[in-house]
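To fix ideas, we close by showing one paired sequence and structure record:
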Amino acid sequence: MKTALQVSAVLLLCSGGALPAQDTRTVSEPRIPNVCVKLDARLKAPLEDADESKLDTDRIQKAMDGCKPHEAVELASGDGKNAFLTGPLELRPGVTLLIDKGATLFGSRDPKVYELESGSCGIITSDSKKGCKPLITANQASGSGIMGDGVIDGRGGAKMLGKSESWWGLGHDKKDEGGNQQVPRMIQTEKSDDFTLYRITLKNSPNFHVSYSHGDGFTVWGVKIDTPENASNTDGIDPGGSKNITITQTYIRDGDDNIAIKGGNGPATNMTIVHNHFYYGHGMSIGSETNAGVSKILVKDLSLDGTTAGIRIKSNPTRGGLVEDIRYDDICIRNSKNPIQLDTSYFLPGKEQNALPVYQNILLHNVRITGGRTISLLGYDHTHRITITFDGVLILDNPTSYKFGARHADIILGPGPVNFQMTGEDSRSGGKPGGGSLPSCADKFVPFPTD
């Protein structure tokens, strides 16, 4: 497998001079490192109840602890065995976890192995204090990564050991009863520069699939995320408080944001999101935490097929800040209720409102929409506005069937074609949109890859 994957090819992140890549790095296809330890599977999927005590955690962790930087621990199938079972793992600096095609790393269903303190995981709490370790952590583990054509399966829909419901069941309880679900994320990084996810498939996370925080340099290439639509709080990829990020050639369907860029625990900047496909989920999001700022984001060549929202920036005055220099180019949106949704009062709680959102220098270029319902640009007040340019934005079915809402927004139209008008409270439109058509989306909507 290593030979097949060791291809180094520079990706053309964007074309033309008008939309330069926002990631300041020169990004090329990742390479699989040399293998220092190969571990063979001892279990066979689907796992039986008797397998739940046969954890591979210690031998995987020991192997990673013993590898040097630029080396990998390989998880391999063979002799009819194709499954590994683990509790929380910690990546080491420069060390890659490599999962072969045909092999699956399953997360344990036992809340006890994830506990940060006794009884803290697999419950609903009244406070926001974290109660569970992630399945895989990279903490100050620069140069590490997860690669391979195998699968990581968090088993979020399977019943927890010793409980009457699944991890996702807690998410539904949270919606019904309030409180905070204490469930593990799949991959959580902190202060880990140059982190890489390459070709891996992530499935059924109990909570967020990937959270990347306080890092400089994050590459996601050829990754698939595949989780049911009704699995609450299962964001796909959430870069937060970080810079120099490229996400490319991914296929994402989940129960929450497909991607959500967050600027709550530090500024989020210099990101390139290019050549990706989203299916069900909540769309290409920024927020809702934007109080430390989000800037210099390029989203290009993206299809959104059946997401609840398409292009989405969300915040509110308890967690808002400046969102600027955001560029969307060559976007195809189909069957999304809210194909364009910019909201500054998203889930507004009754708290002190001292972090007011402002969205400015937002550009939509060559955006095509069909099967939508509502397009909204909702600024906060006369001072804290939305400033946006529609340069080639077309509704391809019937614009008169859509609802349009604008508030405290400055809208520039053109020079590309725009076939609808945005009007509303304290909102102004200017510019001269052109006529004509935009490139077809016919080849943009591709089936989710299942192999």
In short: Confidence is low (pLDDT under 50) at residues 1-20. The two ends are 16 Å apart (CA to CA). The longest helix spans residues 167-177. The chain is about 5% helix and 40% strand.
